[in-house]
Amino acid sequence: MTDSITLVPGGLTLDVLRRIYFDAVPLTLPPDAHDRMAASRALVERIAASDTAVYGINTGFGKLAQSRIAPEDLDRLQRNLILSHATGVGAPMADGVVRLILASKVASLCVGASGVRPELVEALLRLYSAGALPVIPAKGSVGASGDLAPLAHMTGVLLGIGEVRLNGAIVPAAEGLAAAGLDPFDLKAKEGLALINGTQVSTALALAGLFEIERCFAAAMVSGALSVEAVKGSHKPFDARISALRGQPGQIAVAGAFRAMLAGSPLNASHQGDACDRVQDPYSLRCQPQVMGAILDQMRMAARTLCIEANGVTDNPLVLTDTGEVISGGNFHAEPVAMAADQLAIAASEIGALAERRIAMLIDASISGLPPFLVAEPGLNSGFMIAHVTAAALASENKTLAHPASVDSLPTSANQEDHVSMATFAARRLADIAGNVADIVGIELLAAAQGLEFHRPLRTSARLEDALAVVRARVPRYEVDRYFAPDLQAVGALVRGGGLRAFVPLTLEETP
């Protein structure tokens, strides 16, 4: 049984977030969360019973904030808010993303700055624990004022409205509530707004992208090292002194990881001194520490931003129980998430771009010294010719997908919300980019493995031989032309599944 994790403020570490996304780790509330939430709820109820107009409690929303709502209509106001804002379209978000949304929303609300009843927060956690995950359409948010539409779909489930995915099937919300031992709720003053305001959807999508890209990065480190060996490339570019003289932390870490993977290679020893006729390798081999190091630095920077955001309180207005104030601000604006997602999009695209160049090098006999297109009897067999075309198509597609989303904005809510982040799309497209990169890197793994095996009986390092064995357990050597698509699917699944992470001693948690 997996140990549960307590959602203490700031407790959503990168490791915890990974485990929520991939493994649905059990979660619990901290013992003092109930008291914090009850205190903020009591303040909201005092304001709701008073004559003071406070945004989000007894007024309309957005452009309608000047409209005062009668006390007898406050509950209906919150229900109407959820119904009117549940306007998402597109395919449902993946289960791992929905788990991240629920966990980060619960973590935010249990800080006690949002004014919701504790039982609502506990209900969200019970949905998570029961695996009754709200069906949330992927499209319909501009990343300010929070992720309103997708979070309205999440909240609708608490009202018995909408659908959940339960045991792999999509069923009515009422069935999901019953599976979690819950009855539908009637929302009270401010609760609907607190539940749908916030950056949890953008952040969850960006974290999911980060974790998928992290696996692609590790696989690309392995495929890059295998390519070095396949073309009898030099190990000198990975010398620690080169990277130390520049000082970039990611480059230093990546060069060290390559040295660890390549150490003790008999194949490398076979072409030293007079046995080597290479002066310099192509950039796609020689500059791997510089390029992959910059990518690692960007991933770590984005990871820090997203970890902070996942632990933050981003709804509006905020309830400050120490002073008795309710203050309207702009924490719902997801610009930090949008920019982090743009960083990740660029970084991930470069992983694929570099791998595609190495595939092109491997199939080019004039550069690699290997048989044309990595196959015996070229001409009769086409080998890896069109697999490279697939890699080129995916790398080119990523160039368009990587265009920064955060530089765009369209005013909404009759120009009241006049600058938005576009964080939700910025984060959502990371899944497509990562999928493309996984397939590109998978093709390189096959191509590099093929090239390496042309040098048999010489062997590469022990670590890379182990990695090669993992690849070969999925896909056999390409002897003559065969139906190639299943091979690409199998090795792409290996990359997506993180099957090569153990060979790369790098983590996002390390301090650059």
Automatic annotation (TrEMBL):
SUPFAM superfamilies: L-aspartase-like (SSF48557). Its main location: cytoplasm. GO terms for biological process: L-histidine catabolic process to glutamate and formamide; L-histidine catabolic process to glutamate and formate. GO terms for molecular function: histidine ammonia-lyase activity. There is a cross-link at residues 144-146 (5-imidazolinone (Ala-Gly)). It comes from Caenispirillum bisanense. The modification 2,3-didehydroalanine (Ser) is found at residue 145. This is Histidine ammonia-lyase. The keyword Lyase applies. PROSITE patterns: PAL_HISTIDASE (PS00488). Its EC number is 4.3.1.3.
